Amino acid sequence: MLGVGAIGALAGCLDDLGFDTRSAWRDPPVVEDRPRAVYVPAVTEGMGHYGHAHTESYGVMLSYTYPHRFWTLVGDRREKTIVESEDSLHLMASIWDHHSETVIPDSEVTIEILRDGDLVTEEVAYPMLSQEMGVHYGDNYALDGNGQYTARVRVGGTQLRQTGAFEGRFDRLETATFDFEFDSDEMYDLPLTELPERAGTRGAVEPMDMGHPVGRAPDPKSLPGERLGRKTSGDAIFHAYSLSDASRFAAPDRTYLYVTARSPHNGFVLPAMGLRAEIVRDGKRTFAGRLRRTLDPELGYHYGIEIGSIRSGDKLRLAVEAPPQIARHDGYETAFLDMPPMTFAV
To answer: What is the DSSP string of 56-101?
Structure first.
């Protein structure tokens, strides 16, 4: 099962586009003069699937494509991961709660690959953001030639606060197992799509229809509580809310302040961010604190904290102390980095 998302583009496999197989290990074209925002990449890649599996808590899909570059973040420092000559493919694991179909965007995931029972490679998979695939975990992996393999996707639990029906759900190690055949010729037949008219423009390609959730944040209008406003910073979109009926988040007579953060265009959750809030009333600060990364069945992935109150006329100030610590594919690597503070007039 293959997929590729493009409109008005030129598409074909490596041979069709004039590449030889070694081109799979070379950087494809990159947009020059990229905006410091989400942009349409120069090339999108097709993808194949090695199947779905279920553990006690998770739905897992394992996919593959060409080995390719991506960018990781350590604090506010961006680092490019290049394709090595021994890399065989880029493996991607999509992971979600199979009861609620909520994507798990911030967990410890390792992919172990065996052949005839012997370990071939084992790598921690980075949490990643891709326009075509949404939120997932992935890395480039080196295999021992064509043939049969077994992949074990180990989901090692999350340090996120879990609330409501999610409390304690995602704390233990669970493993999904996939038997697959690697065929380099089959991989080189995956389509590459050039986007000459749109490349470099602010925007995003649509995610592929893969039959599972891709990590979109909930509709802002569907979330409970009083909506305090919408702001952007570093091309990310923030919605802030106060929730007075918040028994599972806060003590009685207290208010729960929460914020969702998402990408523009496709509305993907932006996880693993350091976010600090401050409330100012009549020129005086009444609250300051760091919001906690939280996963909730109703609110989804969000940043929240218990406060005394927030009233009409207050000012809510949000400061991003660390940008989303998620690896990025082409089109996201220049966004969500320089993130100025935001002020919401309540």
So the answer is: SSEEEEEEEE----EEEEETTEEEEEPPPTT--EEEEEEEEETTT-
